[in-house]
Amino acid sequence: MTPTRDLRSVDETQPTTFYGPASLTNAEFRRAVGAVDFAVDARYAWDTGVAISRFLEGLREGRILGRECRSCGRTLVPPRMFCEECFRPTDRWVEVPDRGTVNTFSICYIRWDMVELEEPELPFVLELDIDTPMMGFMHKLGQVDPARIEVGMEVEAVWRPEPEREGSILDILYFRPRDAALRKGARQTAKKKAGTKPSGSRKRSGAKRKAG
Amino acid sequence: MGRRVAAVGAGMTRFVRRAQETGKELAWEAARAALESADMTIDDIDCVAMGTAPDAFDGVHMKSEYLADGAGAWGKPYYRTYVGGGTGVFSTIQGWWQVASGQFDTCLVVAEEKMSSTQPHPQGAFITIFDNMIERPLGPNLLWIFALEMNRYMQVYGIDKRDIAAVSVKNKRNAADHPAALLGDADITIEDVLNSETLAWPVQRLDVSPVTDGAVAVVLAAEHVAKKTAPTPVWVEGVGWHLDTAYWTNRDLVYPRYVEYAARQAYEMAGIREPRKEIHIAEPYDPFDYKELHHLEGLQLFEKGKAPEAMRDGVLDRDGDLPSCPSGGLLGVGNPIAAAGLMKIAELYWQLSGQAGKRQVPGDPKKGVAQAWGDLMQVGTVVVMGR
């Protein structure tokens, strides 16, 4: 090692010696330097497992299913065959109501690649109307004016018509306010509303709609 | 507890939106700068610890092996750890245990990220954080989870968006004094943030840190080496890490429990009983402005829901009672994921050894805490440093 350096020799306007890099604009990246393009062609098909395959089957039947752990007394949604807190097998399937409250929400104006959406998407976290607190999953709100959404708002599932269900989280079209007065376009049918969702969202996600 | 370990040098590249340099070249520039700062050569380094986020950003298989040469790992014991955004701070913990264990006397810690290679946007790779069976079919984008957490935090505590926007202003102003910063801006105002484009309400464009390329390196050394060679060693006094459940819709996002657990582990090791009194500088992880406040609460530096008040009262300013992100943070310096976390460790080294130049926190600070977060509001990594 080199001998101990005198700290006073350090230029105090700089945090330390640092180098580069050369910063490029997108145009420079393409024109001046060139670039090598490559697309990974990888596709996936997942087994949905013991718990989620049953959950998705429940959705096809128009029911939300959870797993109960008798040790901690919690009902787990999304369901799992083991309780991560007690670290033991869960005990039985239970059907939970297809309603709850808005735990939190967002009004999203952009697509994943930062392209602006024509109509905002309304993702939210559902807190199910069951004894176990903070239990639920992510979905979207619909039939509601974004300005009227509030944390704590009571919502209910709007299901895809039975013949069209495929065993997917999308068998629930969206959740809408339980209070009809808070609904936007209350006369619209669920099917028509579905058509107004930003188009091509499935393609954008790169995921197949049918999860099972 | 093992042997005492000190940071004896640090270096970084400038953070830029798109670097001409490859990841390997970025790692080399940072490693070279850190070695020069420590007055060492690669021959003085016993092992190398790498931190870098998903391979998907680069489209390169086993990215850490690809980066090894640039990080100075040729012919040396080397491995990579990866805990999402928590990686940069965790890479220091990885380096710490290699030296603390007695296995090695010196460790070069390198963190690199080149996010610009992902086309058209790194969000394409980020989408895979969401559950593949019941979340991805909804067509989510990465901003959703932040918007959902931020809104929960604001609604539960009744937080004014202005107090959150002020964090972005503070950090971008602080970064104006950082020679490596991408988004330093001495003149930015709260109105600029509040008037920026709404992406996913309540998240607006200037609430978010930028996509960035860059690398950072820190040299760690055992006590007998540090005392011999370093004029101002800065000791790694406490380390902590914790992971909460991936079932993020089954817990309250209002509070980062995983940060609290990681912080308590690090404080206990460092012998800190009253963090608010004993910590002089905080470098909490700030990929979004609200997250800095959220993390300050998890770090036990403010009561739940009270960090915004501290922001408003000037407590978090560089000359405040508890300066937070004096570097300029991810919002100002930039956010090359793993490198951004290690930048916080480097900042503590520079601040606590009196080498922070125009960014120097007044009052002779002696103890600091750095923290990073990662994945589905899950990972907390914390390092306490002091001299």
Describe this structure in words.
The complex is a heterodimer of chains A (212) and B (387). With 212 residues, chain A is α+β, with helices and mostly antiparallel strands. Mean pLDDT of chain A is 82; it is low at 1-17 and 187-212. Chain A is built from 4 helices and 12 strands. The longest helix of chain A is centred in the first third of the chain and has 12 residues, at 49-60. Helices cover 15% and strands 25% of the residues of chain A. In chain A, a hairpin with a 6-residue loop joins strand 1 and strand 2 (75-76). Chain B has 387 residues and is an alpha/beta fold. In chain B, 35% of the residues lie in helices and 18% in strands. Chain B has 14 helices and 11 strands. Chain B has a 9-stranded mixed beta sheet, sandwiched between helices. Chain B has a two-stranded antiparallel sheet with strand order 5-6. At the A-B interface, helix 1, helix 2, strand 6, strand 7 and strand 9 of A face strand 1, helix 1, helix 5, strand 5 and helix 8 of B.
List keywords for this structure.
heterodimer; A: 212 residues; alpha+beta; 5-stranded antiparallel β-sheet; 3-stranded antiparallel β-sheet; 25% strand; disordered N terminus; B: 387 residues; alpha/beta; Peroxisomal Thiolase, Chain A, domain 1; 9-stranded mixed β-sheet; two-stranded antiparallel sheet; 14 helices; 35% helix
Question: What is shown here, in short?
Answer:
The complex is a heterodimer of chains A (212) and B (387). Helix content of chain A is 15%, strand content 25%.
Draw up the topology in text.
The complex is a heterodimer of chains A (212) and B (387).
Chain A: H1 26-33, H2 49-60, E1 64-68, E2 75-76, E3 82-83, E4 88-89, E5 92-96, E6 99-105, E7 107-110, E8 116-121, E9 123-128, E10 138-140, E11 154-159, E12 172-177, H3 190-195, H4 201-205
Antiparallel strand pairs in A: 1-2, 1-5, 3-4, 6-9, 6-11, 7-8, 9-10, 11-12
Chain B: E1 5-12, H1 23-37, E2 47-51, H2 63-67, E3 78-81, H3 87-100, E4 106-114, H4 123-126, H5 142-157, H6 161-175, H7 190-194, E5 198-201, E6 203-204, E7 213-222, H8 223-229, E8 234-243, H9 257-270, H10 275-278, E9 281-283, H11 289-298, H12 307-312, H13 329-332, H14 337-352, E10 367-374, E11 379-386
Parallel strand pairs in B: 2-3, 2-4, 9-10
Antiparallel strand pairs in B: 1-7, 1-8, 4-7, 5-6, 8-11, 10-11
Helix pairs in contact in B: 3-14, 6-11
